[in-house]
């Protein structure tokens, strides 16, 4: 099984960033996506995440060809009142530009996303590349239901966490890890497969040049048009911030670069040569703290011996990223 293909399962909370990442994976001929499992995150409805994935698949001509599963509908131990990132992704997760002909939920598989993950890994032991683009709830639940789950994953590439305490949802936490820190800790502390972490600071460092991105969205294809529609609201917000740049510090401006965190993780999953610099360290997650719940904590000086080692990506090849983004809208 495999035929030289990269066998991939995507777990996501789509999400505009996830849309870009999924489109990248779909455009790579050697990538075979076996399923997409959905979790809450960018929006608090897992069902809506599934509908968004179906819409992305339809735009790319893949509707009905890749199973879409509804996963967890609640975080493991939510300590915050319901929150999501609708300010960034819109109320529906795709920029509030609904398609009246979008596929309905009859296209969603009946099998739960967590069971789908477990079954797929059992069916393809040591062969699956798992790409996690949202909170890690589904992965943690799969590991708790099946103790062999992580052992049989070929590799896990995730978007989440931070290396220098730089937050995007709180003062010190990145969104995916903050949403479900218990799940993130289960994955980082317990998973027995190679884990690649693509965190928030990497995303800031890899922000796409604004002029390039605007031109990119003007490409005359159906897929580019789709991306343009779903990012319209965010672009408006971005341009507003850009115009008020003179009142901002350079550091803050960098925060408003065109970040594509999920695309970065997807690129790393597809082409390991895209990693230019990395650190191999134990990383875990703070579960308490007055300010720091959900912050990734990196053991830079081996204070915690015999812990799981993750690969923390710290620099990527922007040329490969932009080439993959371009290919994804052809
Ligand atoms: Ca995401």
Automatic annotation (TrEMBL):
<dbReference type="Pfam" id="PF01156">
    <property type="entry name" value="IU_nuc_hydro"/>
</dbReference>
<dbReference type="InterPro" id="IPR036452">
    <property type="entry name" value="Ribo_hydro-like"/>
</dbReference>
<dbReference type="InterPro" id="IPR052775">
    <property type="entry name" value="IUN_hydrolase"/>
</dbReference>
<comment type="similarity">
    <text>Belongs to the IUNH family.</text>
</comment>
<dbReference type="InterPro" id="IPR001910">
    <property type="entry name" value="Inosine/uridine_hydrolase_dom"/>
</dbReference>
<feature type="domain" description="Inosine/uridine-preferring nucleoside hydrolase">
    <location>
        <begin position="9"/>
        <end position="318"/>
    </location>
</feature>
<protein>
    <submittedName>
        <fullName>Inosine-uridine preferring nucleoside hydrolase-like</fullName>
    </submittedName>
</protein>
């Amino acid at each position: 099984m495999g035929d030289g293909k990269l066998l991939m399962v995507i777990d996501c909370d789509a999400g505009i960033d996830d849309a870009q990442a999924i489109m990248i994976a779909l455009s790579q001929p050697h990538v075979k996506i076996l399923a997409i499992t959905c979790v809450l995150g960018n929006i608090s409805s897992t069902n809506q995440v599934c509908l968004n994935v179906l819409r992305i698949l339809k735009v790319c001509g893949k509707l009905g060809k890749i199973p879409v599963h509804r996963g967890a509908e609640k975080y493991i131990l939510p300590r915050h009142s319901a929150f999501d990132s609708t300010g960034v992704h819109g109320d529906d997760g795709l920029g509030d530009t609904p398609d009246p002909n979008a596929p309905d939920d009859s296209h969603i598989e009946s099998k739960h996303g967590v069971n789908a993950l477990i079954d797929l890994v059992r069916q393809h032991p040591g062969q699956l590349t798992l790409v996690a683009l949202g909170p890690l709830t589904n992965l943690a639940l799969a590991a708790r239901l099946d103790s062999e789950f992580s052992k049989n994953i070929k590799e896990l590439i995730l978007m989440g966490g931070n290396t220098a305490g730089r937050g995007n949802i709180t003062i010190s936490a990145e969104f995916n890890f903050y949403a479900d820190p218990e799940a993130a800790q289960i994955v980082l502390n317990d998973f027995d497969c190679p884990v690649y972490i693509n965190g928030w600071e990497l995303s800031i460092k890899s922000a796409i040049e604004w002029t390039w991105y605007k031109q990119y969205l003007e490409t005359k294809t159906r897929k580019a048009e789709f991306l343009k529609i779903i990012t319209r609201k965010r672009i408006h917000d971005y341009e507003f911030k850009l115009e008020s740049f003179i009142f901002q510090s350079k550091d803050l401006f960098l925060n408003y670069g065109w970040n594509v965190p999920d695309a970065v993780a997807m690129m790393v999953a597809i082409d390991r040569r895209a990693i230019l610099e990395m650190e191999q360290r134990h990383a875990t997650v703070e579960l308490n703290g007055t300010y720091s719940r959900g912050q990734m904590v990196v053991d830079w000086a081996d204070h915690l011996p015999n812990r799981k080692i993750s690969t923390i990506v710290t620099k990527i090849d922007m040329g490969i990223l932009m080439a993959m983004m371009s290919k994804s809208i052809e």
